[in-house]
Amino acid sequence: MAKRPTLTTDSGMPVSDNQNSITAGPLGPVLMQDFVLLEKLAHQNRERIPERGQHAKGSGAYGKLTITHDIAKYTKAKVLQKGKETEAFLRFSTVAGERGAADAERDVRGFALRFYTEDGNWDMVGNNTPVFFVRDALKFPDFIHTQKRHPRTNMRSPTAMWDFWSLSPESLHQVTILMSDRGLPQSYRNIDGFGSHTYSFINTKNERYWVKFHFKTMQGIKNWTNAEAAEKVAYDRETHQRDLFESIEKGDFPKWKFSIQIMPESDVGKHWYNPFDLTKVWPHNDYPLIEVGILELNRNPQNYFAEVEQAALSPANIVPGIGHSPDKMLQARIFSYADAHRYRVGVNADQLPVNRPRCPVHTYNVDGTMRLAGNPNPDAYYEPNSFNGPVQDERFREPPLKISGDADRYNHRDGNDDYRQPGDLFRLMTAAQKEQLFQNYRAAMQGVPAEIVTRQIAHCYRADPEYGAGVGKAMGIDFKPQTIAAE
Q1: What is the CB-side half-sphere exposure of residue 261 using CA atoms within 13 A?
Q2: Element (H, E) at 166
Q3: Residue 127 a catalytic site member
Q4: CATH number for region 58-161+184-358
Q5: Are 86 and 119 in contact (CB under 8 A)?
Q6: Global pTM exceeds 0.85
Q7: In the chain, what's the furthest Cα-to-Cα distance?
Q8: CB 479 within 8 A of CB 469
Q9: Where are stretches of biased composition, namely Polar residues (predicted)?
């Protein structure tokens, strides 16, 4: 039997007794000189960091992205060249629930990907849905407030949720998905993933293309009804975490087919929809899926807190050949995600193993809490300098983005059709899926004031009369179309 290592304090001092505090006699009080006790208690008090404001309950795993098709004409990103294999990390999550929430709840699922490329970390912070509830980040904090606890009752408030959604018609597309069978997946392995936002590709000719990212589960889509999920939650709140961990442990590695949609930069303005609107999808008839490769998860983290809880993914992290877009929500998330991690984990979060790039890093950022790495060139701690410090490289400049118009607060609802795509989605559903949608609305709207319910039904009716009538019937409301005109 191998000799066991000696227990030490955080400073490395060997601990002689880890069972008994130092006291004044066998019955006496504990002495303050027992620094081993004080260190353990002080560390325990700090073992939790602030949980994420959203996507707090999550699971993660490592794997690889393998590029099987040639898309070099669209992007010069090394990570996306045919034959390339890149280490990946994927964090799944629910959106609204706290860390102690059950996995099997009706909610959007986060699908946050990191690729450790030779040019730095590329992060894609998406969901299992291609759209979102709002298109302007000015409304994002308001939306999140409705998903959290009521300040007086300290309970979740369906009234707040439906009040906000019924006053925000742009949310109907995402609400329709959430209330459908796909709002309650059986596991993280059985969901699709989307970058959701519009991003950009830059090729070797310095040409820009707009791009959407898709990850289609190769395990198949599997969902639960509310009743099935309630039965699971009754005896296991970690259904998704357990399924993902155990599947990988036994070698049943989940895979997703990675595809993209490509839009030439010049196509902006040619369609009825805004390609940078997060509440809209690009119809596949306009921009068909182009297969790129395979994403596989094949390794579980060794320590959940260090590698999943402290994971700090942000859409600000891109690499040459991949860029951002005028998507208002993406523009805001470039700031807000990185800032959330600075608050939650610390200004040096990128130095933690799960966040550290696999390529060399050269910055002029200094100091801050939990600084792990120093500057290898202590004389070059500012820029410009004469001491061989890192310098900019014009080769990585993106082509200019054409913009126009006056700076103003433009009403994003003016002239925006927020009903066409939810209606199209509804019409794709089978009769059984439609009935489940209606009943899920009924379960989610229990106790919500009738005026709010009626307002939401009016939105459903605008998307498709059968949609509105079905929700109205499920809610026991005889909805009259003239209600819309009276609003």
Answers
A1: 20
A2: helix 158-166
A3: yes
A4: 2.40.180.10
A5: no
A6: yes
A7: 84
A8: yes
A9: 1-23
Binding-site residues for heme sit at 337
Distance CA 76, CA 18 (A): 57
- Which of 221, 210, 205, 228 shows the shortest CA–CA distance to 254? 221
Return the domain boundaries, the chain.
58-161+184-358, 422-486
DSSP annotation string for 119-154 = TEEEEEEEESSSS-S-SSGGGHHHHHHHHSB-TTT-
Among 43, 45, 127, 375, the active-site one is 127
Please compute the mean of the pLDDT values over residues 396-400 and round it to a whole number. 90
The average pLDDT across 7-34 equals 84
SS (H, E, C) 211-276: EEEEEEECCCCCECCHHHHHHHHCCCCCHHHHHHHHHHHCCCCCEEEEEEEEEEHHHCCCCCCCCC
Q: Is residue 59 helix, strand or coil?
A: strand
Are 210 and 262 within 8 A, CB to CB? yes
- Residue 214 and residue 128: Cα distance in Å, rounded? 9
CA torsion sign for 105, 106, 107, 113 is positive
pLDDT at residue 351 greater than cutoff 80: yes
Our separate counts of H helices and E strands in the chain read: 13, 10
Binding-site residues sit at 337
Altogether, the residues listed in the chain come to a count of 487
Q: Give dist(CA 312, CA 353) in Å, integer.
A: 11
The answer on pLDDT for 22 being more than 50 is yes
The pair of structure tokens assigned to 243 is: 């399924």
Q: Are 34 and 40 in contact (CB under 8 A)?
A: no
Q: Give φ, ψ of 477 to 5 degrees.
A: -115, 125
Tell me how far apart the alpha carbons of residues 125 and 161 are, in angstroms, rounded to a whole number. 23
Q: What is the signed CA dihedral for 306, 94, 324, 206, rounded to 10 degrees?
A: 80
pLDDT in tens, 227-266: 999 999 999 999 999 999 999 999 999 999 999 999 999 9
pLDDT in tens, 47-87: 788 889 889 999 999 999 999 999 999 999 999 999 999 99
Tell me if residue 440 is catalytic: no
The more confidently predicted of residues 205 and 403 is: 205
Question: Which residues have C-beta within 8 Å of that of residue 86, sequence separation ≥ 6?
Answer: 64, 65, 79, 115, 116, 117
- Per DSSP, 319 falls in state -
Q: Per the residue annotation, which of 20, 45, 55, 285 is the catalytic one?
A: 55
